[in-house]
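assembly run, all chains below
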Amino acid sequence: MAVATPPPTAAWTPDSWRSKRAAQQPRWPDERELKRVHAQLNGLPPLVFAGEARHLTRALGEAAQGKAFVLQAGDCAESFTEFSADGIRDKLKVILQMAVVLTYGAGVPVVKVGRIAGQFAKPRTSPTEQVGDLVLDSFRGHMVNDDLPEPGARVPDPARLVAAYQQSVSTLNLLRAFTKGGFADLSQIHAWNQEFVASSTEGRRFDDIAEGIDRALRFMAACGINLTAEDTLHQVNFWTSHEALILDYEEALTRRDSLTGDWYDCSAHMLWVGERTRQLDGAHCEFLSGIHNPVGSKVGPSATADDVVALCERLNPGRIPGRLTLITRFGAAAVDATLPPLLRAVRSEGHPVVWMCDPMHGNTFTAEGGRKTRRFDDIIAELKGFFRAHREVGTWPGGVHVELTGDDVTECLGGVEEIVEGQLDQRYTTACDPRLNGRQALDLAFGVAELLRS
Ligand code: PEP
Ligand code: CO
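ok done. output:
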């Protein structure tokens, strides 16, 4: 079934954003070099196809209508230096584990979307940062500059746009192999439990589920059901997404679909605008308004009900279920008061959005030693508030959006293993915000499954 597409705004073109104010864009030192890179990217193959993006819109449409749940997860910022096949595999393992916990625990289909294969650019609150005695231009993600604490490293370099594209290509290639080539087969479920997870309480809880699934599969096979023929047991659909921040990059990868004539940003299946770039009259909303991918917008504590309804009109005037996801990130303390009025306003205007909770970005603080961190308990508290608000209003809590890694890092505080502030330095490797480690992520999935069940 084809998804109806919104009517194109008369003046929209892949570069119409250029006539609007574009927040958070790097000051590239060499315009000619930028133009050359833009032309190069424009000639390179798309990472994803329009048909895949339409498929994701339909899957998200199910979540908008209360029939599915979305798990969007991955790094805060992918890194050029921390890049390996094992790292990608381990991240995928955790996401697959979380999805199984949610599907098995709550009995709803889970749409799996990675913050991966393109999540290389970061908006910054301040244009500069202090490192020791130095005041440096802020690190803006490896698509733009380098995080080394040296002035030279912080100069934006357009060649990084091509490097980000190339790393996205190889990441996506591996993800496609893993998810379609046997690794995501439900018969492999025990292999997703990594050693440092398997030995933990959460890991053992996961093994119990895996055992239950094994038994169910054996039972079905014994009943004569041909499981080999069931593709859904052997492959998963795994989608890619990132913040559409650097518009030169996104524009260069935007292509017209030969089937429908519509424009798609082929850098990822789904794109979102961040809390700092969601201005209605800004360049980022202009860009997202004309591409036909499913799109999202972060919604922070400053957003009023009118703002959010206007955002829906701007990004999904056709009211297509699955076209627009609103990712709320208020902080544990603000969610109860802030979210219900927005849910009511959007519903009364008839906008079919996917409501997703990002319990990470409103709960960040700097610990005494200077590390940015988040408390696991705050993350869970915001999630509980999110579910409470939806129960109160009668809307569907459509998904969660989290920053995680498969690695055994010490970046977020708490969790079953009780990471404390003094341990943050032990394994703090994120290129930007603090991520949940594999055990904390699994723990969170069990918590969300419980919330979904109730
Ligand atoms: C992010 O998702 O990494 C981010 C910067 O979020 P926000 O725009 O919500 O601050
Ligand atoms: Co982040």
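The chain has a mean pLDDT of 95.

The pocket of phosphoenolpyruvate (ligand 1) is lined by residues 76, 123, 274-276, 298, 329, 361, 433 (CB under 6 Å).

not gonna interpret more than that til we talk
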